[in-house]
Amino acid sequence: MSTQAAHVDRDGAVLTLTLSRPDALNAINADIERALGDALSTFESEPDLRVFVIRARGEYFSAGFDVEHRVDDDHDRSGLLLRRRYREIHDLFDRVERVEKPVVLAAQGPCLGGALELAASCDIRLATTTARFALPEIKLGVIPGSGGTSRITRLVGPAWARWLVMLGQPVDAERALAIGLVHAVHPPERFDEEVDRFAASIAALPHEAMALAKLSIDLCDLLDRGSGRDVERIVNTMLMTSDDHRARVDALKERLSRRDR
Known about the structure:
With 261 residues, this protein is of the alpha/beta class.
């Protein structure tokens, strides 16, 4: 599963993919795409794996897609191959978004272009105080086309999407946190420890409830308010009648009872 460009490690319920092309600023190439796809297949198929963490080593999280790993083809003036290549990238990032388990991206440094598009497909984004985020595609006369424009607009709203997508302007970690692009920011010296602690904490959460929560959030984002309430009732009808929920409630009652004695 590991390649020269990316390493995959397993620690209990946590599967980690680490980008490892520091000399190339961890630019995404065919090896990284293949490693990501293989890791996703493992993560999707093995019930004991509860959290998928994507991180990197080196100064950059990733500078985006490798310029040698082009999306376009000078010999294909029709655009047929271009659209097929984009479909491959879309399908890969859609798999990240679609898997019914939490996917965490940990940016220890700059996260640019296609790497930010990958980040946008993840459930949770963590960053160091020294990280920055940008979509510089407009400077090459194109827009972020691997889900970046659509996902970034959904994440931060059209105003900040104009800043990132239309103008190609960067945001630092503090601004990224303020606009909802990342969820938490940590000092570099504690970052790895905080990522590990966070991954372990969410791995301990009820996995079926988390899977249905992820599906419910995506549905509620598309539905009107009334239909969203229906989703909540349907999902909790299944969860609240489960043995897992009842056991957890009984355990909570027991803890409260012991505290009051």
